[in-house]
């Protein structure tokens, strides 16, 4: 079990750093530490942000660096890891139809594949959710197949529509709201990724998985109709 | 009730910010100049989280349909009430039918108007702070009716100290950022020994800063950032993250400003020159 280095980060924050790598096993350990620290310092923590290899702890008042250092030295995060919530695989429908997939031809050409192959490769395996950042509800997903890695646009688009499913270098993600962006758009999902009417605006947690499920235009219309009447539920299962 | 006759250039409602949602990628928002905003609430004996108006460069014109006590702070230096000049940094009584012209933020970039009891507004994720995609509106609109908590009356207390800051200081104090130790010695030297200019790309998310001397840093694996984080881009420009900044970023975090330093920098306009100094 790797123990992080601890340093101050601004006035009331601490930054915990692990080796700078993108590694699912290490990230699972970081999440175990997150649970442990959240519990131990629950009255002091204002916000907690986990990324690939770091954790920022923002405190209400002065950061308790001494207590936290002692706690990390003595705590056993392995026990916690075994008690962690089982990761969930969320099935997210994606329509790869050319009408929404503005850049899927380019992604196919860049990688010498057909459009159908791009869609098939993109939806072949679940992606690990590392964290949420950049925009409210924007998930950083790991595990894009090498065969469909495509560089970002040099000049970002001013407007990427809400629900756009995109590839940016070796990352893939979903735009939860309309925003500027430089990623290559390869599909569209009708799923609301960030719902302000809920106390917890998104159900997806770091360590969960996203499985994209290709749907046709007709199926997409059907899902929109179900969402409209409140009958649609995102499919979820325990990750194996 | 208060009617917004004109909004100024970019007027928003701000409380201390939206906390507890940064793990969802939600920015904290809150005032650009935290010190001046805090002063405004302190003058009125408001609670620290009471919502106030933030003006950028030019203040609003407001018609009061209700008596109130207000305080104006920050870079605003020529407010008038019924066309009579009024003072800043003190409580001001406003009567029914009074017309307040907040005026220009000549001393810097941001001005604040607090009202006794605090402004009311749409609370989303535990905060009233305007932010695109979170609140219905991202700023105050012309013709909007502003409400405030007029039931609340605080006795004014002269013991509430305010902290006036010098917006013109050319020294911006910082501490080392998480990636400071990864930058090369030449960049370190240039960072500490040369002056910097505020560019024209400035907004509530961040200020781009032009360097006079070459600076270099590689991109990093996306990691936590916060308001006051100074990022160094591969093109050698600095970005100082401000109140509405994203929660994670991929540029090297070379310095970290305190809340006070960030407030001072926020008040600087395009073309302003400054240097970085380390806290002792």
Can you tag this structure with a few keywords?
heterodimer, A: Gyrase A, domain 2, Cyclophilin, 2 domains, four-stranded antiparallel beta sheet, 29% strand, B: 280 residues, Jelly Rolls, six-stranded antiparallel beta sheet, 10% helix, elongated
Structure explained in plain terms:
- The complex is a heterodimer of chains A (240) and B (280).
- In chain A, β6 and β7 form a beta hairpin.
- Chain A is built from 6 helices and 14 strands.
- The relative contact order of chain B is 0.19.
- The mean pLDDT of chain B is 95.
- Chain B is mainly β and 280 residues long.
- The interface between A and B is medium-sized, with 38 and 31 residues.
* Span of the ends, CA to CA of chain A: 22 Å
SSE pattern of chain A: EEHEEHHEHHEEEEEEEEHE
Q: What's the architecture of the largest domain in chain A in CATH terms? A: Beta Barrel
**Total helical segments of chain A:** 6
- CATH topology category name of the largest domain in chain A: Cyclophilin
How is the biggest beta sheet of chain B arranged?
Answer: 7 strands, mixed, barrel
Biggest sheet of chain A, open or closed, and with what strands and sense? 5 strands, mixed
Give the second-level CATH assignment, the architecture of the largest domain in chain B.
Sandwich
Q: Which sequence of strands runs across the widest sheet of chain A?
A: 7-6-13-5-14
Give unreliable regions of chain A as ranges: none
Write down the secondary-structure element order of chain B: EEHEEEEEEEEEEHEEEEEEEHE
């Amino acid at each position: 079990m790797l123990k992080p280095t601890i340093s101050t980060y601004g006035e009331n924050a601490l930054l915990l750093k692990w080796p700078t790598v993108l590694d699912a096993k290490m990230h699972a350990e970081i999440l175990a530490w997150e649970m442990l620290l959240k519990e131990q310092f629950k009255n002091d923590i204002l916000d907690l942000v986990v990324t690939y290899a770091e954790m920022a702890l923002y405190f209400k008042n002065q950061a308790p660096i001494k207590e936290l250092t002692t706690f990390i030295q003595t705590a056993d995060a392995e026990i916690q890891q075994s008690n962690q919530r089982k990761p969930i695989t969320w099935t997210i429908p994606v329509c790869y139809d050319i009408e929404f997939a503005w850049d899927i031809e380019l992604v196919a050409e860049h990688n010498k594949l057909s459009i159908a192959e791009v869609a098939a490769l993109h939806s072949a395996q679940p992606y690990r959710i590392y964290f949420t950042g950049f925009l409210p509800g924007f998930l950083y997903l790991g595990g894009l197949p090498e065969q469909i890695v495509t560089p970002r646009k040099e000049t970002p688009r001013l407007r990427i529509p809400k629900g756009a499913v995109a590839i940016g270098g070796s990352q893939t993600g979903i735009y939860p709201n309309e925003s500027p962006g430089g990623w290559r758009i390869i599909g569209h999902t009708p799923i609301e990724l960030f719902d302000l009417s809920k106390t917890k605006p998104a159900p997806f947690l770091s360590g969960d998985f996203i499985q994209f499920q290709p749907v046709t235009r007709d199926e997409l219309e059907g899902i929109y109709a179900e969402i409209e009447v409140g009958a649609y539920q995102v499919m979820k299962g325990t990750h194996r | 009730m208060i009617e917004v006759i004109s909004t100024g250039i970019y007027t928003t409602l701000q409380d201390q910010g939206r906390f507890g949602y940064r793990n969802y990628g939600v920015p904290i928002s809150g005032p650009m100049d935290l010190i001046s905003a805090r002063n405004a609430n302190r003058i009125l004996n408001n609670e620290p989280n009471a919502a106030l108006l933030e003006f950028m460069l030019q203040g609003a014109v407001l018609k009061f349909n209700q008596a109130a006590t207000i305080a104006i702070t920050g870079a605003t230096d020529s407010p008038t009430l019924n066309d009579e000049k009024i003072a800043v940094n003190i409580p001001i009584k406003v009567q029914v039918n009074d017309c307040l012209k907040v005026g220009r933020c000549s001393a810097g970039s941001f001005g604040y108007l607090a009202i006794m009891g605090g402004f009311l507004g749409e609370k989303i994720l535990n905060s009233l702070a305007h932010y695109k995609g979170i609140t219905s509106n991202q700023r105050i609109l012309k013709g909007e009716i502003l409400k405030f908590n007029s039931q609340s009356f605080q006795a004014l207390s002269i013991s509430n100290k305010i902290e006036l800051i010098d917006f013109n200081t050319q020294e911006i104090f910082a501490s080392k950022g998480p990636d400071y130790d990864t930058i090369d010695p030449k960049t370190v030297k240039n960072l500490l020994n040369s002056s910097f200019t505020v560019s024209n790309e400035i907004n509530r998310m961040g200020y781009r800063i032009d360097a006079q001397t070459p600076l270099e840093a590689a991109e990093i694996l996306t990691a936590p950032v916060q308001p006051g984080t100074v990022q160094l881009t591969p093109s050698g420009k600095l970005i100082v993250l401000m109140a509405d900044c994203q929660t994670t970023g991929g540029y090297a975090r070379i310095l970290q400003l305190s809340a006070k330093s960030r407030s001072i920098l926020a008040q600087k306009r395009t073309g302003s020159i400054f240097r970085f100094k380390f806290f002792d």
